[in-house]
Design a protein that fits this description.
Strand order of the largest sheet: 1-2
Mean pLDDT: 89
Structural class: mainly alpha
Length: 132
Amino acid sequence: MLDLALHFGKGPISLKDISKRQEISEKYLWHLIPPLKNAGLVTATRGAHGGYILAKPASQINLQEIVSLLEGPMRLVECTQDLGACRRSNNCIVRDIWTEATDKFLDILSSFTLESIIKRHNGRFEAVVYNI
């Protein structure tokens, strides 16, 4: 998704190109594309110059949305989402703490958009001028 964001506006990007640049298996990328397409995060273009592009601006796609889509519900412990996961869930002393920690974790992931991640990355690699 970051590669697509970095190349947004340059036309469709092939999975082969993403695979090479990001050093990720092309076969693995093929498994990621269907849920991203179904969620409306990427669109596909067929043909010789086809590939994938973000379906909306990088500023409108956050990390929590991507990770949850690809990994499923994000919970630090299962009982924060499913009371039936543990027979002690209703009376657990630390369940509220785990729930709060999970919520904060999700808030942090939600606070990062693809755009903000790219800006953060670019800020680290700004030109450095040395005077001798």
